[in-house]
Amino acid sequence: MLNHTTLIIIITVIVSLLAWQNKTLFNRLIFYPPAVNNGQWDRFVTHGFIHADSMHLLFNMFTLYFFGRAIEGLYQSFLFGYGFVVFYVLAIIIAMIPSYIKNKNNASYLSLGASGGVSAVLFAFILLAPWEKIYLFAVVPIPAILFAVAYVAYSIYADKRGGSNINHMAHLWGGAFGIVATIILEPQVLPHFLNALLSPSL
């Protein structure tokens, strides 16, 4: 049986490929505030299953594959075994809410991609293993906790600077959701994180 991480990746790849071949489908799934205002609330979910191009898709699914499999078991005891799926989908939704509020009346605003959900997974992993090595660009090793600090700092800077097609706000809120939701579901994760943070050699 496929684990839920792999299943999410398969669905995301298929939907992205179909959307690239069908502009009408692509436009129906992308996050577009005027359409949401008209009742198409499903776009809060569907935008997370399409991507701008192959590199966008590859980066998100590569990250999800490694970190999703590492933490998926933590959520399996919730919601009849579907806790990880619900966690991931909720992360996609909640990560988009601040962007929606900010751009509710912006007819030129569009957003897509799984980054909100992927950020939630990544930051949940960091809670479990703050000193585990994360390979930046799949090459440069960096402790997970240092990566998290740099990631948050850069996302805040880039969001304030603007001028980018990347939704840095969704990255931040997705990561925040991953941390908060994981602590709520498994409160012992917080003392585990603090102990691990203070004992990098263990």
TrEMBL record:
GO terms for biological process: proteolysis. It holds the Pfam family Rhomboid. The chain crosses the membrane at residues 6-23, 44-67, 79-97, 109-128, 134-157, 169-190. InterPro entries: Peptidase_S54_rhomboid_dom (IPR022764), Rhomboid-like_sf (IPR035952). This is Rhomboid family intramembrane serine protease. Keywords: Cell inner membrane, Cell membrane, Hydrolase, Membrane, Protease, Transmembrane, Transmembrane helix. It comes from Psychrobacter glaciei. It is found in: Membrane.
